């Protein structure tokens, strides 16, 4: 036994030095693990995880409101009289309007994006590989627009996180173990983007296997210069903030879409678990992983989610529920009941983040929402349960690579070692804890339609001084508002709502399972009512 975490001998050939380092990092969790182990509360009727979305609560989501859109058709920054490099700064919706009106074509837009990458990405580090076929893809899109055959995302450039397979384009997962890896086929999400007419522009930077280095991966934050860009979908968020592409794909196991979106001042949604297929995506945790869109506007999230959502035989965890038209959901939010979580989840926010949250809630009240405080007694427990599940399933994913553990980055190696040596009892207790957390959340959604929380507790931190608390850091200082909703599988959207000392401050919108449309509706309404920045 090495430290609090290593509770079985196991058979993995892990050097003692790595076990000691893993124990030291996990030891910062202190009494959190003991709280999980000490649980004696009945776990109800749960019998463990199941395929698909059967373990997710099946509470009926509230109806999505209809009515006049609260967001304008196009902001002043979305005018169509654009040319050259300015085209790279348009949203996906703005690009589609421009293509439809003949103001410009996909080749001009891709050229503008590539020029901006060439000029600025050396300083940002958001892109690891540019697709050499992007201009050819754009030419084909331009032809389809001319012929009247345009798809729903025809000609829209997309950045794809480098853990998601792209046919013929290197997918290395930020790891030397997969250097030079070129997939023979696309992940389902990428195939659906291609079918919609989107242009695969570039692969975006990620720490190793999206779980490899909590201290950053060399990606600069254009939204908060000198500050951490967050992780692990750091390249996607930073590229959006820098205007390198209008939309991107990210993944989220414990906040990896929402953390960098919050820090960089962009938007992102972790869809309902099973809403988007994950085949062809390097896995971290099969019961917690989500793939979702990132963008600069909530409207664009809906456009992309409508394309990539839906069941797939290649991923047995996907839901077979029908896919709404997520791109046409803007409507009145009047009458929606908004819950504001009290207790541990809301603690620890900086004054600036609290002020941004209060301002957003006040604006929602002006739009006709009612605001009600709700408890969430299991929030801290949810975080530690999610962490245990993550490290164990991460180790299981990499069982075949255990003899190469010395080739992993130090953080990835430490988490791999921690997961490999976690007891079955701890893992099963964490899985079964999900039912307690779900009951807590279900009780909240009996009173309200959506929850609104702060996103990250602080704005983007200084990496020189921030990373000093082992793996407790992610649970307490970064993802405390995010991890519970990976555990329960609820949809959760992050969007910027203000500034804190010149850095983006964001909120999170959480809806019942399968009510992703409600997150988008509230986010679209609020974003259209906020001052343009």
Question: What would your notes on this structure say?
Answer:
With 533 residues, the chain is α/β, with parallel strands linked by helices. 37% of the residues lie in helices and 12% in strands. The chain has helices spanning 16-27, 31-37, 92-101, 106-124, 134-147, 188-195, 234-241, 258-264, 298-308, 351-366, 379-397, 410-420, 424-445, 463-466, 472-478, 483-488, 516-529; strands spanning 127-130, 157-161, 199-204, 247-252, 267-270, 290-295, 337-341, 370-374, 450-454, 492-500, 503-510. The longest helix is centred in the last third of the chain and has 22 residues, at 424-445. It is globular and about 65 Å long. Residues 1-10, 45-55 and 66-77 have low confidence and may be disordered.
Q: What is the strand and helix layout of this fold?
A:
Elements: H1 16-27, H2 31-37, H3 92-101, H4 106-124, E1 127-130, H5 134-147, E2 157-161, H6 188-195, E3 199-204, H7 234-241, E4 247-252, H8 258-264, E5 267-270, E6 290-295, H9 298-308, E7 337-341, H10 351-366, E8 370-374, H11 379-397, H12 410-420, H13 424-445, E9 450-454, H14 463-466, H15 472-478, H16 483-488, E10 492-500, E11 503-510, H17 516-529
Parallel strand pairs: 2-3, 2-4, 7-8, 7-9
Antiparallel strand pairs: 1-3, 4-6, 5-6, 5-10, 9-11, 10-11
Number of strands: 11
How would you spell out the order of helices and strands?
A: HHHHEHEHEHEHEEHEHEHHHEHHHEEH
Shape label? globular
The main pleated sheet reads as: 11 strands, mixed
Straight-line distance between termini: 54 Å
Number of helices: 17
Structural class computed from helices and strand pairing: alpha/beta
The strand line-up of the biggest sheet is: 1-3-2-4-6-5-10-11-9-7-8
CA gyration radius, whole angstroms: 22 Å
> How confident overall, as mean pLDDT?
88
Unreliable runs, pLDDT <50, ≥5 residues?
1-10, 45-55, 66-77
Tell me what portion of residues adopts beta-strand conformation: 5-15%
Helix content: 25-40%
């Amino acid at each position: 036994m090495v430290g609090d975490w290593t509770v079985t001998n196991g058979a993995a050939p892990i050097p003692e030095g790595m076990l000691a380092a893993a124990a030291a990092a996990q030891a910062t969790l202190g009494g959190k693990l003991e709280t999980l182990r000490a649980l004696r509360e009945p776990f109800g009727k749960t019998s463990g995880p199941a395929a698909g979305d059967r373990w997710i609560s099946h509470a009926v989501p509230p109806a999505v409101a209809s009515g006049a859109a609260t967001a304008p058709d196009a902001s002043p920054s979305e005018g169509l009289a654009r040319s050259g490099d300015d085209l790279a700064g348009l949203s996906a919706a703005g690009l589609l309007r421009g293509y439809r009106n003949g103001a410009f074509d996909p080749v001009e837009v891709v050229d503008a994006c590539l020029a901006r990458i060439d000029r600025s990405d050396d300083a940002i580090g958001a892109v690891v590989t540019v697709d050499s076929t992007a201009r050819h893809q754009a030419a084909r899109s331009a032809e389809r627009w001319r012929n009247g055959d345009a798809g729903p995302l025809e000609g829209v450039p997309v950045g794809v996180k480098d853990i998601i397979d792209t046919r013929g384009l290197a997918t290395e997962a930020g790891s030397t173990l997969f250097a030079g890896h070129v997939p023979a086929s696309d992940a389902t999400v990428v195939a659906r983007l291609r079918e919609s007419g989107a242009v695969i522009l570039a692969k975006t930077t990620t720490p190793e296997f999206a779980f490899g280095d909590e201290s950053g991966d060399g990606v600069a934050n254009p939204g908060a210069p000198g500050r951490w860009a967050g992780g692990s979908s750091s390249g996607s968020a930073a590229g959006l903030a820098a205007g390198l592409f209008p939309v991107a794909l990210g993944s989220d196991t414990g906040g990896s879409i929402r953390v960098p979106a919050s820090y960089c001042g962009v938007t992102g949604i972790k869809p309902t678990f099973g809403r988007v297929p994950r085949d062809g995506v390097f896995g971290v945790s099969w019961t917690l992983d989500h793939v979702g869109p990132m963008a600069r506007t909530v409207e664009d999230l809906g456009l992309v989610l409508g394309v990539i959502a839906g069941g797939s035989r290649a991923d047995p965890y996907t839901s077979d529920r029908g896919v709404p038209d997520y791109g046409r959901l803007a409507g009145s939010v009047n009458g929606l009941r908004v819950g504001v979580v009290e207790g541990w989840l809301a603690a620890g926010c900086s004054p600036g983040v609290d002020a941004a949250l209060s301002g957003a809630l006040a604006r929602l009240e002006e739009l006709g929402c009612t605001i009600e405080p709700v408890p969430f007694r299991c929030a801290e427990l949810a975080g530690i349960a999610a962490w245990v599940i993550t490290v164990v399933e991460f180790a299981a994913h990499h069982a075949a690579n255990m003899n190469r553990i010395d080739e992993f980055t130090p953080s990835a190696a430490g988490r791999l070692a921690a997961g490999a040596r976690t007891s079955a009892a701890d893992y099963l207790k964490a899985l079964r804890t999900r039912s307690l957390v779900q009951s807590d959340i279900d009780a909240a959604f009996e009173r309200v339609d959506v929850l609104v929380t702060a996103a990250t507790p602080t704005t983007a931190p200084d990496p020189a001084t921030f990373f000093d608390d082992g793996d407790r850091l992610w649970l307490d200082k970064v993802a405390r508002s995010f991890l519970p909703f990976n555990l329960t599988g609820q949809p959760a959207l992050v969007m910027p709502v203000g500034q804190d000392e010149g850095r983006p401050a964001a909120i999170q919108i959480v809806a019942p399972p399968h009510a992703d449309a409600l997150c988008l509706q509230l986010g679209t309404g609020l974003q259209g009512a906020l001052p343009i920045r």
